[in-house]
Amino acid sequence: MGRLVVVSNRVADPRKPASGGLAVAVGQALEASGGLWFGWSGKVVDNGTPGEGDLHLHQAGKVQLATVDLSRDDHHSYYLGYSNGVLWPVFHYRVDLADFDAGFIGGYRRVNQMLAQKLASLLRPDDILWVHDYHLIPMAAALRAMGCQQRIGFFLHIPLPPPLILATIPHHEWLVRSLFAYDLVGFQTKADVAHFSSYVGTEISADVLGEHEFRAYGKTLQVQAFPIGIDVDELAALAAGPESQAMEEQMRTEYSRRRVLLGVERMDYSKGLPQRFKAFRLLLQNYPENLGRATLIQIAAPSREAVDAYATLRQELESLSGAINSEFGQLDWMPMRSIHRNVARKRLPGLYRAAAVALVTPLRDGMNLVAKEFVAAQDPEDPGVLVLSRFAGAAEQMHEALLVNPYDTAQTAETIQLALQMPLAERQRRHQALLRGVREEDVHWWRQQFLHALAATQP
After folding, report:
1. What per-residue confidence (pLDDT) applies to 367?
2. Full-model pTM
3. Does the annotation mark 54 as catalytic?
4. Known catalytic membership, residue 231
């Protein structure tokens, strides 16, 4: 196989710790084989010209990093406007939050075209290209228009919505047509593949050539589910490190008389945080034996704070947590601790191990690697319990978790109570099965499955 070229919206040095699922997985893929990682530098140039950007090259071990700056106008339309103001909410079923400003799609096309031009100058004939996520859906079409013949695969890290929701996006057919410029498109779940199959069958009358093969616009496309995993051994090494152990010891000392419920995610309306807080309130109301004994610690890292919907969400969460603490708090116990900042990745395993229950309850999520990290970090002799939304992609694999409908806060509260009361033998049985699945379908399996399938496509 030729050189691996990874293309993603953001680029990170694979030698440094990363917190996002994409950054961790892609970094490990490149560290294993070497190659090129291309994307936006993260830098916004105030006086930059739209459709233009400086290219920067940097060597990071075996990996060459190639990044491009964005002008202020391009960042506004491509990143904030179309990627995160249109695609993100619609793909997470929140059409009500989408801003279909006609100007955004022009910036989205323009930036993808510009990035493709910069990338094309760096490519070799035998390269294998792996493009990631919703920011870069048109990348292959732009490269093909420049004459690129290399194999190109695409992986969508977020969910693909059902056809009628996808069709709310103006120019939705153009987006799907862009996917047919790839040789292989990977989704997180079988449900996403089913949504794609339904869309191309009803909206564009594509020919179904096989279970995973479609033909439209004169092109043949392979489509499969490749659920992303984690590096279990890397997480185990972090758990054995001093930062993690110090965190676990601190948590067990501070909460020696409490049961810790833990949530860890970015501050995002897709994560179901208001519903989770309300379910916790019902837990305290309906099961008063938890008063003074159960504490919810919610880590909600800052995310896209310039977007109005996120500022509104933060205000709602602060109001809810304040009301819960005011209603149920005691002199020596506050039921909720809501923390709006990042926790260092080296400390996270210790936090996971100290928790009796993990609450991973998004309204919609492509996969959710926190669920898998929590399982991998547990003490097998005394593991915590995973409460998982049925609307997280991880639910397709993690059947032994306690699955909930996060919209049903009463049912979620009941399930949390079951988790808190679960006998040790059942906790061990569920954890063993979950850990086996997390190990078998880890990040290395994910990478190998995708790249093997891409290499097998017809050029």
Report:
1. 96
2. 0.95
3. no
4. no
